[in-house]
Amino acid sequence: MQTNREQWTSKLGFILSAAGSAIGLGALWKMPYVTANAGGGAFFLIFAIFTIFIGLPVLLGEFVIGRRTQSGTILAYQKLAPNTKWSWTGRIGVVTCFFILAFYCVVGGWALLYIWKAVTGALSGLSVDGLAALFGETSNDPLQVIVATVIFIAINWFVLSNGITAGIERANRWMMPVLFLFLLILIVYSLTLPNAMDGVVYFLEPKFADLSADAILQALGQSFFSLAVGVGGMITYASYLKRDVFLPSSALTIALMNLLISLFAGLAIFPAAFSFGIEPQAGPGLLFVVLPAIFNQVPFGIVFLLLFLVLFLFAALTSSFSLFEVPVTAFVENRPELRKRVLFIVVIIVTAMAVPTSLSTGVLADVTLFGKDLFGIADYVASNILLPIGAFLIAIFVGFRMPRQVLWDEITSDGAFGFRLFAAWLLVLKYVCPIAIFFVFLQQLGIL
Predict the structure, then answer these.
(1) Closest CA to 153 of 418, 316, 350
(2) How many other C-beta atoms are found inside a 10 Å radius of the C-beta of residue 121?
(3) Residues 75, 330: Cα–Cα separation, whole Å
(4) What's the CA gap between 337 and 327, in Å, rounded?
(5) Are 266 and 36 in contact (CB under 8 A)?
(6) How far is CA 189 from CA 17, 124, 204, 311, in A?
(7) CA distances (Å), 54 to each of 358, 428, 429, in order?
(8) Considering Cα of 65, then 69, then 72, then 77, what sign does the dihedral take?
(9) What letters, b where the CB count within 10 A reaches 16 and e where it falls short, cover 337-361?
(10) Closest CA to 19 of 325, 258, 329, 229
(11) 11-444 topology per CATH
(12) Are the CB atoms for 86 and 397 separated by under 8 Å?
């Protein structure tokens, strides 16, 4: 183990940071909508089962790779499988992070713009149509979106320049509890509105008749992506982890926190939407059109809208921290004196990708590939192609390439993990997870 390598100061700091990495935009603006329209409680139950029994094993595999090697996602494979092509799995993860950040930073910039608009009163009194028009004007304004995107990147730069403990861990230690607190406040508020329980029923009533094969594949895919596996972020975070942390309990805690946030987001959104008869939707329309329209109709609604926008920003930031950290750690490794220089280069690359992406609904709207604008291209390449490939390779590598004794040592370190449970985990990782990921990959490409 390198003596000059930073480490998380506590298990809690690691869990909050890893959970922040996993809890991203999808949990807040996609998962609730998909759940409500693909089977409600039945979909959420399937999603929870897949998360625990398929997504969690891959997450644990990433933890094993990271802590065992105490290295970033490229060097980790070089250490475990020297003189092989496995290090390309790490390189794919680094490339995936750049593609995700290309659109993630744009959405983070939108959140910053709307926090400012909420504070200045620019959202007050507008109807759904008015808010839709405002979002169109905002996202098409080159100056606004570029400045906001750059500010979001700059926040990441500032936090990551302070390193793992003083930067990422310290930020997550207060951002994650605040995120939970804000969500709880919004849930209590939403449930007090008229007809709130109709929204709860719509969101969580088990509708097994709506649970199609496509919905099941969606739940399966969401179980992987919601845990942020496949990009090497969890390998990177685990590489800063002490030996006395019991990996299975940490992974399970993170998976349960992610499920809880997905549930909380739906309970905050749907009761309020049904209370005012506004049709919920997924994506930017939910955050920047639907929710402002809802909160405009209640006393002090702008305060609660501001809370939601801030927690959305926090979710975006805690995820983007890990996305930036993957290439930074991969290129710095055990030379911490180079961290700020490498971080600056990574920031420049991300900015060069994110700024054109931020203009994809405006001046660069005509720049398309296969019918997708720059934002859509970055999202599709990362989410539909690179992420499934990364998760598939990680499952194969841990299941078939790593020595069983190494896996046993890491999994059972400082905790009780019986042989039968270990054997079941390894069996799922070797055979169930790769097959499941392969089917998700085909579904994402539209083949299934």
Answers:
(1) 350
(2) 9
(3) 7
(4) 16
(5) yes
(6) 28, 19, 18, 15
(7) 35, 7, 8
(8) negative
(9) eebeebbeebbeebbebbbbbbbbb
(10) 258
(11) Amino acid/polyamine transporter I (1.20.1740)
(12) yes
Query: What are the residues whose beta carbons fall under 8 Å from the beta carbon of 113, sequence distance 6 or more?
Result: 138, 144, 145, 148
Strand partners, 369: 372
Q: Which residues, including other chains, have CB under 8 Å from residue 125's CB and lie 6 or more apart?
A: 296
pLDDT value, residue 25 = 76
pLDDT in tens, 48-67: 999 999 899 999 999 999 99
- For the record, the structure tokens of 44 come out as 């959420």
Structure tokens at 110: 């939108």
Closest CA relative to residue 407, chosen from 387, 390, 428: 428
DSSP letters spanning 305-328: HHHHHHHHHHHHHHHHHHHHHHHH
Segment 148-164, tens digit of pLDDT? 999 999 999 999 999 99
CB distance 58 to 225 below 8 Å = no
**Residue tagged 């793992």 (tokens):** 164
Say how far apart CA 410 and CA 222 lie, in whole Å.
27
**With the CA atoms of 106, 108, 110 and 116 taken in that order, what torsion angle do they form, in degrees rounded to the nearest 10?**
-140
Domain ranges in the chain are: 11-444
Cβ atoms 2, 79 nearer than 8 A: no
Global pTM value: 0.92
